[in-house]
Write a structure and sequence with these properties.
Distance between the termini: 27 Å
Shape: elongated
Number of domains: 1
Length: about 80
């Protein structure tokens, strides 16, 4: 049902909605994902300031959300010159 609803929305709306839903899910339902992402960033960039780690983790979460939501409209990317 959500897939069909997303197919009717404009590309930027779907992308932004995916980012926001992922942020909400990780923030309130599954914070362990963010904890693991922080650990990975710190492992590979131990010198990175904590504020930058947080920024990178939440950017990652939002991008994964965009990716997942955009599967519903991927067929429209080529016609919108986004590939």
């Amino acid at each position: 049902m959500a897939h069909r609803a997303l197919r009717r929305l404009p590309i930027p709306v779907v992308s932004n909605l995916g980012a926001r839903l992922a942020w909400l899910k990780i923030r309130f339902i599954d914070p362990d994902v963010a904890r693991k992402a922080r650990a990975n960033v710190r492992r590979h960039h131990p010198e990175m300031p904590e504020a930058e780690v947080e920024k990178l983790v939440w950017r990652f979460v939002e991008n994964v959300g965009r990716l997942m939501a955009e599967f519903s409209i991927v067929h429209r990317f080529a016609s919108a010159d986004r590939m």
